[in-house]
Amino acid sequence: MTEPIITKKYHFCASHKYGNDYWSEEKNLEVFGKDYNTHGHNYVLEVSVSGPIDPDSGWLVDLGKLNVIVKSKIVDILDHSQIEEDVQWFKGKQPSSENILIWAWDQIVKELDQGALYRLRLVETHSIHTDYYGPGQ
């Protein structure tokens, strides 16, 4: 890769509960353990953008515009939510980090008009993070 990548971090707090409505409570507890209970995380979303540097501004993306996109389309929606209950896209889907990133990518990529979305990373705990490089990667 010959173009720079810039990464901006965003923070939000949200809760979720894993579970499969088609399974018994015993099966849900066996598969999901304590995560079958509603619980929350202090998430960190890292948004990485790549592209050519604008010769006039010296930037590959206007961070002010990126902030507006990410805050309005992701953070303001997820912050202090119970993801699978409050966000329509998650109805019938597990509110996993993997699914959160697929949803977030779709929300950001259609709004970004400078640079290209390169990677999303969602940090769920001090020892778990998930990366997503977009569909087809």
Describe how the helices and strands are arranged.
Blueprint (H helix, E strand, L loop, with lengths): L4 E12 L8 H8 L6 E12 L12 H16 L2 E2 H4 L10 H13 L6 E10 L2 E5 L5
Parallel strand pairs: 1-3
Antiparallel strand pairs: 1-2, 2-4, 4-5
Annotation keywords:
137 residues; alpha+beta; Tetrahydropterin Synthase, Chain A; five-stranded mixed beta sheet; elongated
Q: What's the short version?
A:
The protein is an alpha+beta fold and 137 residues long. Helix content is 30%, strand content 30%.
Characterization of the model:
This protein has 137 residues and is of the alpha+beta class. It has a single domain (5-132), classed as Tetrahydropterin Synthase, Chain A, CATH 3.30.479. Helices cover 30% and strands 30% of the residues. The chain has 4 helices and 5 strands, in the order βαβαβααββ. A hairpin with a 2-residue loop joins β4 (116-125) and β5 (128-132). The chain is elongated.
